[in-house]
């Protein structure tokens, strides 16, 4: 997985829809410059958390985690003022917690506990992993920003933190993957199982995942053991990143940076979905998809054809545009 470069976004006009763009041009184009998510807003929040078209001011990168935590606590206070009946819930979940790590450990432990696996056991496990893994918390912050920016149903950071199962499943996986990489496979598989039962999201703890991830709706998402998901990827519900048989080894898809995968898609086998590609809803993908192209159908085909596919000029995981390719794909009109 390529790490995103910490610079401001450059002009997207560098991208070309010209299918005859040379390979050397594509190699010279540094796609990861476009993979930095929007910064955390630091303007006051209205009580109804309504989104506005004005972009808020930014905060320094080194302070983003603390700034986001302060914003979430303020959002929680505003929610309690609006709905006092939730005061105990918000106090336990957010306002009484000393850090983002502790709050996340608390939420996950409550969500994933059951009668034989109490939250008191899980909270120590989650807190221990999160507090010793700053890279996970950096990814959590980027994931929260991704949900806030890309999902119009998200009214606040604290809303997604407490209620969005795609976000919570992603963070539980990050903990499980850390345990898996430490050789604690029994615990990692236990977390996978509980996430599958509670959130209907089944991600093998061996799967690798970047930051800035959006699992929109998330129900029915399946990710295999050797799958890799890059940075700033958006995936909708009922998506399978699976294998094609029972052979062991590296057998699952590799998803590049900035990819958008539509609902109901199956991507099968050890294939590569290139940076900035878009996969249309309901597609079955069995072969590599080149960067900045659109694949759709069963079996999936490239918009514009295999020889000269149309190149996307915007990052699909940021735009969340699922339909712009239709005019180039079909003249069917209802």
TrEMBL record:
<protein>
    <recommendedName>
        <fullName>serine O-acetyltransferase</fullName>
        <ecNumber>2.3.1.30</ecNumber>
    </recommendedName>
</protein>
<feature type="compositionally biased region" description="Polar residues">
    <location>
        <begin position="10"/>
        <end position="25"/>
    </location>
</feature>
<dbReference type="InterPro" id="IPR053376">
    <property type="entry name" value="Serine_acetyltransferase"/>
</dbReference>
<dbReference type="Pfam" id="PF00132">
    <property type="entry name" value="Hexapep"/>
</dbReference>
<dbReference type="GO" id="GO:0009001">
    <property type="term" value="F:serine O-acetyltransferase activity"/>
</dbReference>
<dbReference type="InterPro" id="IPR010493">
    <property type="entry name" value="Ser_AcTrfase_N"/>
</dbReference>
<dbReference type="InterPro" id="IPR005881">
    <property type="entry name" value="Ser_O-AcTrfase"/>
</dbReference>
<feature type="region of interest" description="Disordered">
    <location>
        <begin position="1"/>
        <end position="25"/>
    </location>
</feature>
<dbReference type="InterPro" id="IPR018357">
    <property type="entry name" value="Hexapep_transf_CS"/>
</dbReference>
<dbReference type="InterPro" id="IPR045304">
    <property type="entry name" value="LbH_SAT"/>
</dbReference>
<feature type="domain" description="Serine acetyltransferase N-terminal">
    <location>
        <begin position="68"/>
        <end position="172"/>
    </location>
</feature>
<dbReference type="InterPro" id="IPR042122">
    <property type="entry name" value="Ser_AcTrfase_N_sf"/>
</dbReference>
<dbReference type="GO" id="GO:0005737">
    <property type="term" value="C:cytoplasm"/>
</dbReference>
<dbReference type="InterPro" id="IPR001451">
    <property type="entry name" value="Hexapep"/>
</dbReference>
<keyword id="KW-0012">Acyltransferase</keyword>
<keyword id="KW-0028">Amino-acid biosynthesis</keyword>
<dbReference type="GO" id="GO:0006535">
    <property type="term" value="P:cysteine biosynthetic process from serine"/>
</dbReference>
<keyword id="KW-0808">Transferase</keyword>
<comment type="similarity">
    <text>Belongs to the transferase hexapeptide repeat family.</text>
</comment>
<comment type="pathway">
    <text>Amino-acid biosynthesis; L-cysteine biosynthesis; L-cysteine from L-serine: step 1/2.</text>
</comment>
<dbReference type="Pfam" id="PF06426">
    <property type="entry name" value="SATase_N"/>
</dbReference>
<dbReference type="InterPro" id="IPR011004">
    <property type="entry name" value="Trimer_LpxA-like_sf"/>
</dbReference>
């Amino acid at each position: 997985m390529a790490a995103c470069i910490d610079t401001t976004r450059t002009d997207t006009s560098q991208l070309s829809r010209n299918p005859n763009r040379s390979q050397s041009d594509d190699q010279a184009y540094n796609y990861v410059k476009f993979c930095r998510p929007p910064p955390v807003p630091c303007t006051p929040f209205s009580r109804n958390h309504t989104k506005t078209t004005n972009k808020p001011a930014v905060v320094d990168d080194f302070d983003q985690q603390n700034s986001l935590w302060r914003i979430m606590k303020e959002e929680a206070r505003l929610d309690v003022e609006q709905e006092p009946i939730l005061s105990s819930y918000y106090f336990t979940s957010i306002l009484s917690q000393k850090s983002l790590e502790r709050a996340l450990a608390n939420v996950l432990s409550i969500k994933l506990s059951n009668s034989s696996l109490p939250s008191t056991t899980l909270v120590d496990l989650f807190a221990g992993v999160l507090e010793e893994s700053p890279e996970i918390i950096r990814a959590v912050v980027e994931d929260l920003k991704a949900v806030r920016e890309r999902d119009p149903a998200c009214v606040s950071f604290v809303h997604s933190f407490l209620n969005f199962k795609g976000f919570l499943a992603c963070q539980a996986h990050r903990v499980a993957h850390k345990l898996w990489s430490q050789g604690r496979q029994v615990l990692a598989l236990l977390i996978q199982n509980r996430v599958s039962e509670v959130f209907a999201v089944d991600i093998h703890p061996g799967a690798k995942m970047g930051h800035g991830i959006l699992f929109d709706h998330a129900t029915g998402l399946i990710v295999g053991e050797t799958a890799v998901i890059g940075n700033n990827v958006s995936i909708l519900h009922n998506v399978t990143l699976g294998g094609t048989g029972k052979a062991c080894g590296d057998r699952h898809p590799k998803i590049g940076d900035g990819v958008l995968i539509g609902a109901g898609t199956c991507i099968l086998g050890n294939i590569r979905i290139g940076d900035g590609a878009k996969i249309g809803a309901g597609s079955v993908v069995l072969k590599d998809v080149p960067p900045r192209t659109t694949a759709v159908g069963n079996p999936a085909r490239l918009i514009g054809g295999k020889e000269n596919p149309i190149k996307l000029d915007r990052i699909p995981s940021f735009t969340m545009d699922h339909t712009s390719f239709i005019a180039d794909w079909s003249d069917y009109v209802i």
